[in-house]
Amino acid sequence: MDKPNSQEQFDTETRILRAARQVFFKQGMAGARMQDIADQAGVNKALLHYYFRSKDKLFQTIFTQAFQTMLESFKAIIASPMSITEKLESFIHVYISNMRLNPYLPLFIITEINKRPEVFPRQLVPEHQQVDLKKLFAQIQKEIAEGRIAPFQPMHLIMNVLGMSIFSFIAKPMMIHMLGVNEKQYEHFLNEREAQIIAFVRSALKTS
Amino acid sequence: MDKPNSQEQFDTETRILRAARQVFFKQGMAGARMQDIADQAGVNKALLHYYFRSKDKLFQTIFTQAFQTMLESFKAIIASPMSITEKLESFIHVYISNMRLNPYLPLFIITEINKRPEVFPRQLVPEHQQVDLKKLFAQIQKEIAEGRIAPFQPMHLIMNVLGMSIFSFIAKPMMIHMLGVNEKQYEHFLNEREAQIIAFVRSALKTS
DNA sequence: GTCTATAATGAGATAGAC
DNA sequence: GTCTATCTCATTATAGAC
Questions:
Q1: CA dist B6 to B3, B10, B30, B100, B174, Å?
Q2: In angstroms, rounded to a whole number, what is the distance separating the alpha carbons of residues A114 and A110?
Q3: What local confidence, expressed as pLDDT, does residue B123 receive?
Q4: How far away is chain A from the Cα of B109, in angstroms, using its nearest Cα?
Q5: Against a cut of 0.90, is the pTM above it?
Q6: Which CATH superfamily does the domain covering A69-205 fall into?
Q7: Whether pLDDT at A96 is above 90
């Protein structure tokens, strides 16, 4: 865990939420300890229950907000008036920036849904705020038809971009061990990542 | 959890190992319960301690073997006498096949190293059996120089392939919720995945 | 709202009979 | 080798003073 936040400027509830995010993101629901969260927040453990009643309720608060955050970066880009190439490059940029700030976020969401699928209702995301894939797909089809990009199935194209962007960050500890490189070397690699992915995608989408 | 294995044909130790793999892979070290493993194996809980002494020892056994498995599929491909394009496509094929059998494996390794970096020694992989990246990189550089594939940095090229292959599987629960699709639709998407990634990589590597 | 003390429970581990 | 019963401890949660 990092050093307890120098966050005396925040009220107790906020300090708990920030601390809970750090601990839950890294350790997950099962691995997190209420005492760790209290220490990290610099408050008494009993206060966590005073403000959030139970560990599970606190977790739900953190999880829901994390999921929304993840969703928002998706939707903002899709809705914007850009070409597909611009949108894809925007995806890459935004996700890599986010992963720099919050490397545990996607992994946290993935693993927690995995572990307790029953906890997350079928409609975790209400109908009206789901990602509007149809529009995006239509735009991709249109640009393909116009011969502006090479033909790939929209869903796969998007997954390719997400996979290349996100995986290299979440798999960092595994890759370091598998490849036998050190932290510094891997960080250097990650710094080049955005430019390299963009070049790769451009090359793939080039019409010949 | 799945139904208890109809694995009466295996001896007790094997049944425990198989059950432990299932439970640890899905729930992680912190989330797993010895009782769950015992139930899954169809044996008495005390036997887990008789055979493996502690939860931690049992976990170490499972983790180490999982990590070796992950490493082997890497190394086997790298060592084989194929062109880069063939090797990359072999990567894609092998990883997607493995993920079909064992969707939790990479996620398990990633999250457990994340949570307890101190547990895993710097040299989790002994020097002599590390992935021989140098050779692979040299081969890539050579094929680029010969104009057989477009120029990309070797490490990034490999990470692109791994990311596209692995991410779509490990992120399945997240994507299903984010995109508002159902399990069946996502499975259909995954079935097309191998061919789509190969097409994408070929397009990117094409020399113009 | 915040603290100390403590209850309640869950889960890993062991003893000892068979 | 396998089982039942039990010990021990960590952790969530609550009671009650301030």
A1: 8, 9, 26, 21, 31
A2: 6
A3: 59
A4: 7
A5: yes
A6: Tetracycline Repressor, domain 2 (1.10.357.10)
A7: yes
Domain B66-205 homologous superfamily, CATH: Tetracycline Repressor, domain 2 (1.10.357.10)
pLDDT one-digit tens code per residue, B167-191: 999 999 999 988 889 999 999 999 9
Closest CA to B65 of B8, B4, B24: B24
- Residue A69 corresponds to which tokens in the numbers above? 């955050």
Cβ-defined contact of B174 to A110 (cutoff 8 Å) = yes
**Distance in angstroms: CA A44, C1' C1:** 11
- From chain B, the residues in CB contact with A132 under 8 A are none
Q: What sign has the CA pseudo-torsion B112, B116, B117, B119?
A: negative
CA distance B96 to A8: 49
Could you tell me the pLDDT band of residue B142, with boundaries at 50, 70 and 90? very high
Tell me: the pLDDT tens digits for A111-132? Answer: 999 998 877 766 677 777 778 8
Fold held by A1-53: Arc Repressor Mutant, subunit A (1.10.10)
